[in-house]
Specification:
Elements (H helix, E strand, L loop, with lengths): L6 E6 L5 E3 L2 E3 L3 E6 L13 E3 L2 E3 L15 E6 L5 E3 L2 E3 L4 E6 L10 E3 L2 E3 L5 E4 L12 E3 L6 E2 L3 H4 L67
Parallel strand pairs: 1-4, 2-5, 3-6, 4-7, 5-8, 6-9, 7-10, 8-11, 9-12, 10-13, 11-14, 13-15
Amino acid sequence: MVEHNAIGYENTNASGVVVARNVARGNRIGMAINSANTEVLAPQRGGAVVANLVVDNDDPDTPETKGGFGVGIAVAGGQDNRIERNVVRGHPFAGIVLIDQDGFWPLDNRVVDNRLSGNGNGIVLAAEQGGAPEVGSTCVEGNGTGPTRPSALADLLRCGRAGSADLPPSPLEQPSAPDGIPYSEVVRPGPQPQMPGAAEEKWTVPSRTPEKVDLDSLRAPAS
């Protein structure tokens, strides 16, 4: 579980990373997958965010972060990622946001079968400086209810179609974020039974070669 952060989970330029069966709650932004020139190895490619619970990431009593508040999952210039079968709810701006960053566009991503509810917008696809976003073969399908920006996004970016549809201009237009708090004032977490030193079990050094995750076998969390 990640909570009380500016961004619960953030990946900049790390390719091929799998994030599965986690909880991101009570942050400013739940999860962010980025391409950026501030670090080496841009753009980010080929990751997966699958079967996570991403809820209520709109806590103002958290440190500030540039670029957002009240967002579940953000893909800022990330490419060829799978955003699938996550439960994403309770975000005043948007459940899932795809946007360009540092000249990198959110190309060739799959946003499929997520359970979106209780968000200001279900999915937002935007160009930070305005104009029509570039998305390559990005597709959007089966993500439940809620308005999208641009509207009818699932029709514009249906999976299995040849290439991407012509998209209308879609500037980001997100609301201003509330002031945050210093890192030193973030609330301390409660008991963490799975942390090293827990009484129930002895902690051991994890394997350096984790098993490969069968993403297709994972299902969205129950709540």
